[in-house]
Structures are given as structure tokens and as C-alpha cells.
Amino acid sequence: MEVQDFLLEIGVEEIPASYISPAMQKLQTALTAQLRDAKLSYARLDTYSTPRRFALVLQGLQKKQQDEIIERVGPSKAMAYDAAGNLTKAAQGFLRSAKASPDDIVIKDTPKGEKIALRMQRIGQPAAQLLPTFIKKAVETISFPKTMRWDLMQTSFARPVRWIVAMLDADVIPVSLFGITAGATTYGNRYANLENSTTIASVHDYEAALGRVLVIAHREKRKESIRSQIDALFASRTDAVIPDERLLDVVTDLVEFPTAVIGTFDKRYLELPSKIIVSTLSQHQKYFAIQDAAGHLVNGFVFISNGDPAHSELIRRGNEKVITARLEDAEFYFKQDTSIPLADFVPRLADVTFQAQLGSLLEKTTRVKAITASMLDEMKAEEQLREDALRAAYLCKADLVTGMLGEKEFTKLQGYIGMNYARISGENPQVCQGIYEHYMPRGQKDSLPRSVVGMLVAVADKLDTVCGIIGVGLIPTGSADPFALRRAANGVVQILDALPWAIDIQKLIDVAFTLLAPKLPEENANRSVVIDFFQQRIEWLLKNAGIEYDVIASVVHMPYRDISDLKRRGLDVQTFKQRDDFIKLVLGFKRVSNIIADVRSGGEVNESLLVEPAEQALYAELGQLRSRIQPKLNARKYAEVMEELVQFGAVIDRFFDDVLVNVEAEEVRKNRYALLAEIRRLFLHVADLAQIVISENNVK
User: Fold this and answer.
1) Which domain holds residue 114?
2) In total, how many domains does the chain have?
3) What are phi and psi for residue 11, nearest 5 degrees?
4) Residue 441 maps to which CATH number?
5) Could you report the per-residue pLDDT of 181-192, keeping only the tens digit for each?
6) What DSSP character marks residue 58?
7) Same domain for 440 and 521?
């Protein structure tokens, strides 16, 4: 099989870094899918991208499709020919659709009888003929968050397209995109020459050709070059760059020929909170921060230049001027903000809308404080914790209207700014910590608040958001959750699970809806939706704890007011699942549940109607079991309770072996129903074992 190499490069004006990877993925997926459908194989695919180009190379691309014999089966022979042996309309239509003649017909035996068929040879097409169409279709699949339009054709792309390279080995593919005809000319780094063009001799020469005009086209090689240069800069130093893989990915997509350079700034700016400095460097300027051996920030940074390495000194001075201006702004807002106590910012929250129907951030703060107070009451919290938690709830949103967040847009530092401003204002350390932690967990990989104050305020804030947003009808769908309510609800259940106190989540939901009542279209609007929403999040928590789905189903019948207790039940039941005696207990309990499934009320057990020794023994053992397990239930020692229930399983089995429940005597039958109902009620204090799935492999 003959093969060749294929190259496609789309040259653009500098494109945003965040656009590059998704666009390359779409281009690659669309093109390879078309090749696969056309049955054109290739040996290897390499992708290349810089701020000014999207490119891919296919090595060993099949030069031509294989010829194929295609068989098409038509109507049955009986339907294809009339009594005179002439083709029917059905057969003629079949031939027309296949563009075939009667001479092409063969008779084929099938499981459904003889049918007419066609065997036609399809001549494979050269890849060179197919690729222009494939390229156009693949490029059309690329989409961007924002696009630009240019020229009279109103062509749109993320940035104007300036050149196209499309080649098979050394030959140009005749394709036009965006009003540009493809050629073999590409363009290198701007600093050497604005035109700085180079002709690609063949696909094999692509990467080397760009290297000659100072472009490292392969993204991973460019990334590794940045990493290696940074390591080399600090090889003989005691300080080091603070690792930041996300920033490394960003700067990789910002440059074509990277040069790592160290810059410095005035030491006085180190008086600013460290995250303000790091955020100024990394988020605003895409610089790497530097720390000493003890982990303290130093007045230096590393930037990745795309300019001429010979002029790195001049470029360094320019970047130092820029970062000085940035830090000077941050210092100005920091000093201005901290000239007054953090509490003075709270009234300004009245001017900021939390959500159009739910009012201002000040109103939200009031609700958060009230929900926090409700939890403190339920915990019977001591006075210092109460003071700290309520103060943190009052101050938790204050930093959102400071100059640092409002003007400098350090939005990722909300909470951190509040913590530092609270500390400077002389607030209790627990209050400061709670302000910072109340946003936690910010994402799936973020940790939970460590302080009780942080936990309480975090639950109150997130619960108010979930109840309020769903309450006004903005319910998340499977694909859309613009207010991140699932993340907020996950945080609530995780924190309540971690709290050393039992907090009734349904009671908290009721408190939240009472506070939200003036804002909702009707009283308790969508409250049931919120209950179901948290039920799903609790089941998510149990699943993440390693509890199997049937065990989860066995415990969620309990009121899920105490989430940590629910989780403990599930984990303890889970430990028994593989035991043979537990399997027997489950089978016995299922039998109990099935017999009384349609019984509305079991009533009270009449001991005088217990005539069989096995039922008398069951009733006596049940009383003893209840007295033994009640203290263990109170102490939440569910594993010990399960052990008692497993032992009791043998008594249940003897009962079913010796006693017929559904006897004709109505009083006796109902009394036996009542006895089984008593057993079921007692078991349900731990779990509904009827929900446990027993496979055939478990039954011995």
C-alpha cells in the first residue's frame, strides 16, 4: 500500500490561549473521523499549535482508497420478475437507485429465500481528491467563544486567517479557505522580520522549517523548553519558582519561541498579603512568582518572553515597569481599604445585587447570619463560638465591595482579602479564618473548612444560595447549572457530615425558606424540589464513601436529618454484606416484609394468641433483642446492632419453619402480622434490609 505524509496549517493573527486546545481537538476529531469513514488509514498523527497557527501532520497516510466489491441485495426473486419473466417495477426501481442495468443482476440465496442482488466494483479515490473537501468540513467544525468577521465575505474565525498550508509530501493541495488559496509558505517569529516567511520543501520538513524561523511548533516541546529554561535559571540559586502547572500551560500557548527571564520588583511590595502579589504576577501578567527556601515570597519573578533573546535585558526592564505599576495599584487599594475597619464595608453590600429576585448581598448576609444562629442554637454552642460565628457571618461578604476586589478585580481572592482585612481590623482569629473558609470547598478537589466557624458560615451561605435560587424557579437541569448549585449542595452535605455535631438539614431548609419567604413567588416555593435535590446530593456523598447502591437504598428511608449518622449506618451495613449469616438474615427479613406488605396496620401483639412454641420464642426473643440493642442504637454502634440482628435471624428462620402465618383463624393471622410488623419496625431503626440485593452467587 502506497502512503504519503499530509500537512495542514492554518495561520492566524495571535489567538487567545484558552481558545487553542479546544480548537485543535475539534479540528483533529473532525478530520480523522472523515478519514476513518473514507477508509483511509494513517500511521501517526502529530499536532502543532502556537498563538499564530493550528497544524496537524499525518504520517503514512494511505495514498488511495482500496477498490471494493459492493453487494446490494434487492427484493425477492418472486417480486422482481412477473409471470412472463420481465422485471417488475420494484426491481426496476432497485436498479435505478444503484445506477445498474439488468445484466448486472445476480440471484443470491438468503435465509429468507432467493433475492436479486448486485455486485459492483467501487474504484477507490486518491486521497488528494478527497482531502480538499475533508479539510473544509473539518475547519467548519471549529467554534470559539467569540469570533471576528472580516473582508467583504464576512468570514468569521477567532482571529483573521492570514495563510493556509496544505500539502501531501512536497505537493500543495488545491484548497481555498477564508478567501485564501493554500500554498507551501508559512511564517515565523515576528521579532526577526514581520514577513519572516519560509517555504516548506515537504511535509517531513515542516517542524524543522519553522525552527529555522524561530518557532517551536510542537506544543509539548515548547512547554518542556520553558520548564528546562526555568530549571536552568535556578540551578545555582537557593530560591525557586513556585510550581504552577496551570500557568505553565497558559504561557506555553502565549509564545512561539520562549525565553525565560528573571525580573525583580521593589521589596516594599512584599508587605502586601502574599496572594495579592502572586495573583498580580500570575493572573494579571502571567509571570511565575519566586519563593525562598523557607517558602516566603521574594521580590522576583520569571516571565516568558516571545521576543529576541538578544534583547532580553531591554524586555526585562519593560516587564519590571509593568509589574511595578500593577503592584503600586494593588498597594494603593490595599492601603485605602485597610484605612477603615472591614465592618464599615458591610452597609455598602446593599448596593450590590446578589440575584434580581433575591435582593442585595446585604440581605443575603442577614439571612446567612440567621441560618448560622439556627445551627448554633441546635448545637447549644458556647458563647465564644456563637460570637465568632455570627461575626464571621456578618463580615463574610464585606470584601466584595472593597477597592481591591471591586476595582482591581481580584475575584479569585474573595475570602482571602476579607480574612486579611479582618485581621488588620483586629477581629478575632477564628472570625478571620471563618471569613476565608466560608467559600470552601470551592471545587471538587478543594478541601473542607477546618474551623467550626468556617464550617457553619459555609453551610449557611451555600444553603441560602441553593434554597433561594431554586425557590425562585431557577432549577438546575442535566446540562445547565449556571449558579453551581450542585457544587454548593455537595459542600453543604460534606460539611454537615464532617461537623462534630448533629445538624438537622431539613430544619435548616425550613429556616432558609422562612427567611426567603418575602422574596419567593409563594410560600415554600419549590421546597420539595430542594428536599429532593439534597437527597440526591446525600446519596452522592454515600456513594463516594464506597457504599453500594442497594445499601444506600436500605438506609435512605431514614429521615436524613443527621447526615453523618446516615453515612455511619451505611458503612456498617456494608461490612456485613459478604457474610453468609447476613445473607440469611436478609432473606428472612424480605420474607417478613413481603408477608405484611399489604397490611395497613399490624396493631398490637396479643400475647395470649401466640399458641405455637416458635412464635412464643420469637416474641420473647424480640423483647430481649429490643432491650439489648436500644442502648447501642443510642450510642450509634450500628455494627454491634447488626451483629445482634444477625443472631436474631436464626429465630426468624425457626418461626417460618414451624409456623404458618396465613392461617384461616383471622385473629391468630392478624396477631402474627402484628408480630412481624414489630420485627420490621425494629429492624428499620438501622436499615431496610429488604432493599439489599441478593444474587444467586450469594445464596448457598
Assistant:
1) 71-120
2) 5
3) -95, 130
4) 1.10.3210
5) 999 999 998 776
6) E
7) yes
